[in-house]
Design brief:
Helix content: 25-40%
Number of strands: 22
Pfam families: ABC_tran (PF00005)
Strand order of the largest sheet: 6-7-8-3-9-10
Number of domains: 3
Shape: globular
InterPro entries: AAA+_ATPase, ABC_carbohydrate_import_ATPase, ABC_transporter-like_ATP-bd, ABC_transporter-like_CS, P-loop_NTPase
Distance between the termini: 24 Å
CATH topology of the largest domain: Rossmann fold
CATH superfamily of the largest domain: P-loop containing nucleotide triphosphate hydrolases
Largest sheet: 6 strands, mixed
Protein name: Erythritol transport system ATP-binding protein
CATH class of the largest domain: Alpha Beta
GO molecular function, one term: ATP binding
Radius of gyration: 25 Å
Organism: Thermoanaerobacterium butyriciformans
């Protein structure tokens, strides 16, 4: 907490985000957050998925603007209207997914958009190469700057990205978002040495990571966000991993809990056995995943971003068919070819990104609801409009979708009602297994309550449901049983009184940290 910080160091704040509020439609992402960045230190920002870390960093990088609050750099108020404004003020950001041109050289990538010119037309390649070589040598990594970026390892690409930001003559603060998520142990060691070199130059680092042991090793200060609020901050030397976890988890307001069935006697409707999925670089996204789902059961899947949760649902749904292992439906092996076949087999999925993957924004509300079930309402290629309308109306009423007219554009609805439309679209396909990926993301509390009630009622009707969620409270509230993923592996299975916040968080870090 503030009172635990050394007074001398507390006065060494180079960047202050004061009383920051950020409101998006239907949700308050940040609520009166004050965040301090100390000069020449590694300032770690920690929180569960959805805690507000990325939103705060986007504000500091000029990508988003706060609804309320002020930013101060070296005790002077600044206003960041764009990433260019942030760079002019000496703030750079390295995103989790590095953007570069793989077929261009290191030198060309480093100077993209800020080329050195001989005159108003020609690029001064000689000067660019000299500057690249100088910066990379200072960082201890003198690469061949004529090598193509696509030929470098992920760790080397990250070093080049850091060097690119050092081209800013006044770089003061560098934001690193999950910088080690794709690095080997050796590359992490190199990165940490590089961070220490940056600190020696007086550059401040804002470091975001789910890897708690890394945080304890590399950071000087820790700030914890939870549900859009700052709940704790301290010197790293004053805290431990248990302190971090307890502040991340907290004691949030409880949702009204459904009556769960921890001892479901029904048969297995879905069986996944030894499912593995590899990336293009041959690393595993999923490794030997085996799980079972009973009829009428709600199975929660919890884990950190990148743990493989979404990828599992995509394999089951036929979005990605390049996996190994087997899947049984009602005791019979099924060969998954595509999404359409899986819909016929009795599967349906509510995707994580409803705007991109769940809705057709050019269609109206009614057409979005019936989109996946048109074969039910057509014969010999002719659509039976009356039957389609009756089923659409039935779904609108049963899900309590609030609308003025079903012929209105889908974007006329609130986020919560858009989500109900996607659920309704899936239910019209009459699924046996419903896959829900972050079903309440970006919707308000009242809409969340409605979605929970819908999920509960569907389970009572015998539909089997898998729910992926980053919200601990949500998983605790609606799941009969919970499995936890970490680094593409199943690291825990919990039922009944075993399902606790602490148990789920600890299991989600297995393979990343030792929390014992």
């Amino acid at each position: 907490m503030e009172e635990n910080l050394n007074i001398k160091e507390s006065n060494n704040v180079c960047l202050l985000a004061k009383n920051i509020v950020k409101i998006f439609p239907g949700t308050k992402a940040l609520d009166n957050v004050t965040f301090k960045v100390y000069k020449g230190k590694v300032n770690a920002l920690i929180g569960e998925n959805g805690a507000g870390k990325s939103t705060l960093m986007k504000i500091l990088a000029g990508i988003e603007r706060p609804t309320e609050g002020k930013l101060f750099l070296d005790n002077k108020e600044i206003e960041l209207r764009s990433p260019i404004d942030a760079e002019k003020n000496g703030i750079g950001m390295i995103h989790q997914e590095i953007n570069f041109f793989p077929d261009l050289t290191i030198e060309q990538n480093m100077f993209m958009g800020v080329e050195e010119k001989k005159n108003s037309i020609l690029v001064n390649r000689k000067t660019q190469k000299e500057k690249c070589n100088k910066i990379l040598a200072e960082l201890g990594h003198p690469f061949d700057v004529e090598k193509k970026m696509g030929e470098l390892s992920v760790g080397q690409q990250q070093i080049v990205e850091i060097a690119r930001h050092l081209l800013q003559p006044n770089l003061k603060i560098l934001i690193m978002d999950e910088p080690t998520s794709s690095l080997t142990v050796a590359e992490v060691s190199i990165l940490f040495k590089l961070i220490n070199r940056l600190k020696e130059r007086g550059i401040s680092i804002i470091y975001i990571s789910h890897r708690l042991e890394e945080i304890m090793e590399i950071s000087d200060y820790i700030t914890v966000l939870r549900d859009g609020e700052k709940v704790a901050e301290d010197l790293t030397k004053n805290v431990n991993i248990s302190w971090i976890i307890s502040n991340m988890v907290g004691s949030e307001k409880q949702y009204k809990k459904r009556e769960k069935n921890f001892d479901i006697k029904t048969e297995n409707i879905l069986e996944v056995e030894n499912l593995s999925l590899k990336k293009n670089n041959n690393n595993f996204v999923l490794k030997d995943i085996s799980l079972k789902l009973k009829r009428g059961e709600i199975l929660g899947i919890y884990g950190l971003l990148g743990s493989g949760r979404t990828e599992l649902l995509e394999c089951i749904m036929g979005v990605n068919t390049k996996f190994t292992g087997s899947i049984k439906l009602e005791g019979k092996f099924i060969k998954i070819k595509n999404i359409a076949q899986q819909i016929k087999n009795g599967f349906a999925m509510v995707p994580e990104d409803r705007q991109k993957d769940g809705l057709i924004q050019t269609l109206n509300i009614a057409k979005n609801i019936s989109l996946s079930s048109l074969n039910r309402f057509s014969k010999f290629g002719i659509l039976r409009n009356k039957e389609e309308d009756l089923n659409i109306d039935k779904m609108i009423n049963s899900l309590r979708i609030k609308l003025a007219d079903k012929s209105l554009p889908i974007l006329s609805l609130s986020g919560g009602n858009q989500q109900k439309v996607i659920i309704g679209k899936d239910l019209l396909t009459m699924p046996k297994v419903l896959l829900l990926d972050e079903p309440t993301r970006g919707i308000d509390v009242a809409a969340k309550s409605d979605v929970y009630e819908i999920i509960d009622n569907l389970a009572k009707e015998g539909i089997s449901i898998i729910v992926v969620s980053s919200e601990l409270e949500e998983i605790l509230n609606i799941s009969d049983r919970v499995v936890v993923f970490s680094n593409g592996r199943l690291t825990g299975e919990f039922v009944g009184n075993e399902i606790t916040k602490e148990a789920l968080v600890e299991a989600s870090y297995k393979g990343l940290v030792n929390v014992n």
